[in-house]
Amino acid sequence: MSAIQAKILIRLLYKLPGFTIPVSNCPACGGRPDRIEFNTQYSPLDHCADCGHVYTRRNPGKSILRLMYRDIDYWKQDKEHQGITRIEYGPQWKEFIDARIGAMRKCGVFADSAMKFLEIGCSEGILLRELENLGHEALGCECNRPTAEAGMKALGVKIKIGLFEEFQLPRAYYDVVASFHTIEHIPNLDRTFAKIVEVLKPDGTVFIEVPTGPEEYANTDHVQFFSDASLKRFLERYFEVGETVPNLYSTADGTQVGSLYGIGRRPRRPAETSLTSPPPQ
């Protein structure tokens, strides 16, 4: 199936009953919408009156998600604007890796002593490879099977294939759950963050990056569009401390793109030692 055929089929499935999930309240704060912010070819985007979050009125179901993230071409399109054309470890990855490790250092998330990392939406797994090179334990989750399999073969990393919230993972095990440019793709934020809280240690941290700006509304595979207020408010629902840090980066052609780092520290749940489990196999 070509990319054009897939988009036509996705558009059809959005119109049929049973393939999407209606969203009435804001996924970030539970508030009500005050207007339609934008109309995509798939769904209207509603604007939350309380926190400024923008979100799809109809979330894609599993059939649509499988079509969206079905092949390695998605990886190629995603990495092309960053000037990356090969999965294999090499100098083409330096700026990409330095930006992510540097951001975690800047925000006080990264330590040189050995840590346990879990990355949601790890794509080919290049960050996992770098974390392991630096002496850390790292596991990734990725729903695009061809991309994950290519990464495991080329980079020798560990990736679970499928939806993060459906995996069996050790509880209270990870120091950091990281996710770069992935949370905006996730329909059910509450289910995902409940799982993040479950797998983090009592003093653990979530570190995410999401794109910002109205230019993102045309990305039909994005279902969440965070403002600074909505991201902070959402993180504070699940963590004792929620922080946001604005960021700006350049694509390969020099285009300036805005994003937000979100940091949640100390998950909101009882710190029970009985929750600890052996490492994943």
Mind explaining what this structure looks like?
- The protein is of the alpha/beta class.
- The protein contains 8 helices and 13 strands.
- Helix content is 30%, strand content 28%.
- The model is unreliable at 271-278 (pLDDT under 50).
- The protein starts with a helix and ends in a 14-residue tail after the last strand.
- The chain has a single domain, classed as Vaccinia Virus protein VP39 (Rossmann fold, 3-Layer(aba) Sandwich), CATH 3.40.50.
- It has a 7-stranded mixed beta sheet, sandwiched between helices. Strands 2-3-4-11 form a 4-stranded antiparallel beta sheet, with no helix packed on it.
- The chain has helices at 3-15, 62-68, 72-80, 94-106, 126-133, 145-155, 189-199, 228-238; strands at residues 20-22, 33-39, 44-48, 54-56, 58-60, 116-120, 137-142, 159-161, 174-180, 200-211, 224-225, 239-250, 256-267.
- It is globular.
What proportion of the residues form beta strands (DSSP E)? 25-35%
Instruction: Give the oligomeric state of the chains in this entry, treating copies of one chain as homo and distinct chains as hetero.
Output: single chain
CATH architecture: 3-Layer(aba) Sandwich
Structural class: alpha/beta
Q: Work out the radius of gyration.
A: 18 Å
CATH class, anyone?
Alpha Beta
Distance between the termini: 34 Å
Order of helices and strands: HEEEEEHHHEHEHEEHEEHEE
The overall strand count is 13
What do the pLDDT scores average to?
A: 92
Helix content: 25-40%
Number of helical regions:
8
* Major β-sheet strand ordering: 8-7-6-9-10-13-12
What would the CATH topology be?
A: Rossmann fold
The total domain count is 1
Uncertain segments of ≥5 residues (pLDDT<50)?
Answer: 271-278
Shape estimate: globular
Main sheet, how many strands, which sense, barrel? 7 strands, mixed
CATH homology superfamily name:
Vaccinia Virus protein VP39
